[in-house]
Amino acid sequence: MIRLALSDLRDHAATWVGAFFVAIACGCIGGWIAFLQSTAGSYADPLRTALQNAGSMMLVFSLVAAVAVLASAANLTVSAQRRSYALWQLANVKPRMVSAVVLVQLAVVAIAGAVCGTLLAALSFEPLFPLVFGSRDEIAQLTPYAELSFLPRVWLVVAGVFLCGGLRGARAAGRTPPLAVLREPEPKRMGMTWLRAAAFACLVVCTCWMGSILIGSGVDEAFTWSIFMPPLVVATLVPVAPLVLSALLRAWTSLVPQKRWIAWYLARRAARFGLAASSSVETPVMVGFGLVSGVFSVVAGGVAFLKDQGVTDASGLDASAALLMLGGPVLLCAVGAAVSVVMSSRSRSRDVALLSAVGARPETLVAAAVCEAFIHTVTATLTGAVATIAAGAIVNYAYGWPFFAGLTFGEGLVVSFAGFALVLAATLVPTCMALGQDAAVVIAATQE
């Protein structure tokens, strides 16, 4: 089994490299969190508490993005490999063995990426520590300490999230009839599993519980805890993201006339058909936009309320706090969005070659790639905006403040523009490469 898993990883390295880079990003962020905790242990209060709080904030906000991105990347990787798993079953490999091999592959990629990521964190922690805490002089002057004994915990956590995220895909790889997989590369529908439904229900309960705490607490306490409402609301959307994103994509793109521009028609059909790829591309952008816009909106609304109550020294996020809370999630979301498209580049090259073979013009296919990146970004941004509005409304209701007070999308749009640029680049590269080759050669290569 181990030999089969490792040899398949080697033969399909291009498919697994995306998940590997996501694991590197998670390992790097996890390494920073571990090193902040080890540095905190070298000092007494209040510096110890400040460093521990910084690590805790980084963990909470990064964990939301990590779970969403890792699960999407793992499921997309397994989905892209379904043809290979079908061939294994045709070669008399038992379904349970197929699922076990997939889990082994996920664990190997996760641990290898996490090890590389923590090594990167070890190299960058000391030189970047003063820059990250540049707006807090009392912390920036401390001597950072990177305790390497904490790193195995990070590797295990990343591997655990990878395995949990890819469990559904691993089971599907073993249970799907081989001939059905060979006939159809991806299921037409993406249903709601009991695990996703249970996670959604639990997160809804947690969100309501947090809202009741905010409503029943004083202004100062509500302002302190309100910062955790945006990641909680965004996390609530993640289990139902495939359904919500698919419905929203279908709704808003239908407003654009389909018959007047063939490039838009092709882009819409590609985005709607590739459910696994679409949700894996859109979910990271949705999470990044929702976290960034939600945090800045909640803080802006709270500061405005405190100033209205006569608190003159109320201020928003400083650079260090913003970087610690949002730097990790933005990094993960950017990497997740880009690699999701790269991981599906093989099927994209095949589709471009097929369209070229039936007479589609190159400029039409390039325009379709641009439109598809635009569709993914707008869909994710609209969903993230819903999360931002919901989080802001809950917090403002606790203040007795207008629902839309402090609402801002500007900072989140920076994430959307960056996501669009990454997705566009990752979409155009395989399209242009396929256009530069003979269509028959590309089709034959992708069928191997």
Automatic annotation (TrEMBL):
ABC3 transporter permease C-terminal domain segment(s): 330-436
Transmembrane annotation, as ranges: 12-35, 55-76, 97-123, 154-173, 194-215, 227-252, 273-299, 319-343, 364-397, 403-429
Species of the source: Raoultibacter massiliensis
UniProt keyword annotation of Iron-sulfur present: no
Domain of life of the organism encoding this protein: Bacteria
Protein's name in the database: FtsX-like permease family protein
Keyword Transmembrane helix: yes
Entry's localization field: Cell membrane
Keywords: Cell membrane, Membrane, Transmembrane, Transmembrane helix
Native organism taxonomy: Bacteria, Bacillati, Actinomycetota, Coriobacteriia, Eggerthellales
UniProt cross-references to InterPro entries, sorted A to Z: ABC3_permease_C
Membrane topology: Multi-pass membrane protein
One Pfam family linked to the record: FtsX
